[in-house]
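Subgroup meeting minutes
Present: P.N., E.W., G.H.
Scribe: E.W.

1. P.N. recapped why we're keeping a running log of single-chain structure predictions: easier to compare across weeks, and new members can see raw inputs and outputs side by side.
2. G.H. added today's entry (168 aa).
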Amino acid sequence: MTDARAILATPLGPLELQGTEAGLRAARFLHPLVGTPSTLAETPTQQVPECLRETRAQLRAYFGRELQHFTVATDVAAGTEFQQLVWATLPAVGYGRTASYLEVARQLGNPGAVRAVGAANGQNPLTIIWPCHRIIGAAGQLTGYAGGLARKRWLLEFERPSLQTSLF
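Output recorded in log:
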């Protein structure tokens, strides 16, 4: 399967999408800080590979406040078994909600795995799609986000109209 690539302009900077005919493999921000000037232009519509068009459409709907739950097909081959378990729990933390790393570890039946949950969250290959930005510290503090804490804060504020704490 051939990897395809496209860039989506977002309010948080360019988001690179990679995928195959089977589904999305990666969605990641290309710059570490919100507001960082970019020399990367969005991939023109006619040049977006077919396998990434639905992902792009759903992300645009998300940023347009028209979508709260992603349904794109995924084709993630990376990650350990534990990381994949953590990533699979992330969509259960719905739009406008947050959960702590401890709550995720408990959900997985391993309350001692808080740091491992945090590490897995940091390796999430599908930012926003698998909403690791909704996972916060036990006391409500923002900790860790591969895209930078400013982006995590922005995403949580963006979802704030219905923001509620506590998990699944």
